[in-house]
């Protein structure tokens, strides 16, 4: 009797939260869910960006120190934030896919990488546009700038490595290892202005202090940040859906999708 009881206990279905987690990780469910969300994300990105640009370039007052040049920060700061957050997200999903063989996690990591690289490139470019009138030069080998440039190389290295290996499983594993090792650069970027004496200014928004900017400036910055987030989710989901269709081409759910659309 005890043996029967033990066997029944071991074969019991997993708890509901765990079942839901693995259900959402299925490519078919992910595809349907993200396709339904995409129109809302694109619309949100457009509306928030228009509001943020209007607030930042029209409503917000001129800065007393940096004059009109500071307005480039409404684009620079959100892209710089996203460049770091997206790398952490890419590394997280890559490791989840590697360690637990979750197919959709590896595809999501791959989908994040190009957008993360784009955000990093935009952060570097807008930072240079801000640095020229502020510092008098387009580029300095500052700790923050140099570590952000290294982040761009890590993104590009991940993309090159995963595309160079034809076998998807080996490619995902190699990419996950590189992403995990490179994640150490993210805290270096964030804390560089505290650890070293750098030209780059410190954070204007901190959890332990009130924002050191006018309310209209803060509102514009938050709107642009939300717009960047909405765009990032929309484009990453679109790319992940394309990867899912490519990798799952022989599965029944893809065949059903074709029949529904044609």
From TrEMBL:
Q: How does it sit in the membrane?
A: Multi-pass membrane protein
Superkingdom of the organism of origin: Bacteria
Species source reads: Roseateles subflavus
Q: What does this protein do, in the record's words?
A: Required for the export of heme to the periplasm for the biogenesis of c-type cytochromes.
* Similarity annotation: Belongs to the CcmC/CycZ/HelC family.
Keyword tags:
Cell inner membrane, Cell membrane, Cytochrome c-type biogenesis, Membrane, Transmembrane, Transmembrane helix, Transport
Q: Where in the cell is it found?
A: Cell inner membrane; Membrane
Which regions span the lipid bilayer? 39-60, 80-100, 107-125, 145-162, 174-193, 213-238
* Primary location recorded for the protein, binned into one broad class: membrane
- Signal peptide interval: none
Q: Where is the Cytochrome c assembly protein domain?
A: 25-200
Tell me what this protein is called: Heme exporter protein C
Q: Which gene encodes it?
A: ccmC
């Amino acid at each position: 009797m005890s043996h029967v009881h033990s066997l029944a206990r071991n074969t019991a279905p997993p708890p509901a939260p765990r079942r839901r987690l693995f259900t959402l990780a299925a490519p078919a469910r992910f595809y349907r869910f993200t396709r339904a969300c995409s129109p809302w994300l694109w619309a949100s990105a457009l509306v928030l960006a228009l509001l943020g640009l209007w607030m930042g370039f029209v409503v917000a007052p001129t800065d007393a120190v940096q004059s009109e040049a500071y307005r480039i920060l409404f684009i620079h700061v959100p892209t710089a934030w996203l460049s770091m957050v997206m790398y952490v997200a890419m590394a997280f999903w890559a490791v989840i896919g590697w360690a637990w063989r979750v197919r959709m996690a590896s595809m999501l990591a791959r989908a994040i990488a190009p957008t993360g690289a784009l955000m990093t490139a935009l952060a570097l470019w807008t930072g240079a546009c801000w640095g020229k009138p502020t510092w008098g030069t387009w580029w300095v080998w500052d700790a923050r700038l140099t570590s952000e440039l290294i982040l761009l190389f890590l993104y590009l290295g991940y993309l090159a490595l995963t595309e160079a290996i034809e076998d998807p499983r080996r490619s995902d594993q190699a990419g996950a290892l590189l992403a995990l090792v490179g994640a150490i650069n993210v805290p270096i970027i964030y804390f560089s202005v505290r650890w070293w004496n750098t030209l780059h200014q410190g954070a204007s928004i901190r959890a332990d202090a009130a924002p050191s900017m006018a309310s209209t400036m803060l509102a514009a910055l938050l709107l642009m940040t939300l717009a960047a987030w909405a765009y990032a989710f929309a484009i990453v989901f679109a790319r992940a859906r394309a990867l899912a269709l490519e990798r799952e081409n022989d599965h029944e759910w893809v065949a059903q999708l074709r029949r529904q659309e044609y």
